[in-house]
Prior knowledge:
mainly alpha, two-stranded antiparallel sheet, two-stranded antiparallel ribbon, 57% helix, 5% strand, globular
Amino acid sequence: MRKRTVTLPWAAGYGLARTLLALGTLGTLAFSDSATLFREVSTVGQYPLCRGVTGAGAFCLVSPDHFETMRWVCCLVLVIAASGWRPRFTAIPHAYVAFSVFTGISIPDGGDQITWILTLILVLVAIGDPRRWHWQPQPSEPTENTRRPTLALIGVSAITVARIQMSVVYFQSCVAKLPHAEWADGSALYYWINNYAFGAPDWLRPALNTVVDNPLGVAALTWGPLVLEIVLAAALLLPQKVRWALLPAGILFHLGIAVVMGLWSFAFAMWAGLLLLLAPYGHDPRLTRLWRKRAQPAEPERPAVETPVNDPVHA
């Protein structure tokens, strides 16, 4: 019988992704009152609709008079989840709040949908996380949880599913633009930047127009995102050193979308997705060194657990 190792997925890297997801939803709830979030949509009805499975959302459990109270209760859940405390206990409430926001508010965006999907997937990682805080490094000594290869395998498998999901998102985002003439001829960003509903803010528009008024500038701004998206879609096929190079490019890309279009919750969701897509399994950025005020020690060998596998050759 041959034994294979499974990398432990519980490290500060996936914890940072959880925090980003929680902060994105927290921003939506904390900076928008109930009258803004829950409105009537023409031909659809008054939100939350509370039909079918969406009726299980948090805002369908209370009357409209208590939406404000429920909004702040959800904010409290998100603050605790973002803090990193006891991920195995906070993961399911976090996913429930993400589901409630995506299915309950009047105008959810793609960031709310990605947040709901990723938080649901990360529940499978967090339920086996033995740490008190998700910022802590992986345990150097085996614990009761880390001796269970099934929990580690479930966690790694869940992160793999999240990676595939992000690859599909970027692939679809790229190819869906190609049939449109404005994206094909390189002029799409001119129209987006000057759109009064979703375009650049007034203080930024003059600077951007100096770029998009130039044929080469607008073509670069239009085709550049397409190239980046298709490369990110293929990231799982690329070496790890190339993935690390793609990470700051992806972060800046979504930061630009947030600044120009105001889609900040979308940016936080995609930053979390980028970390899951591009960082290796069990990545530990050692964020705790920022407040420990000491030199970072050499990174120990990443813990792993052994999983017995029947090998017909050596059986």
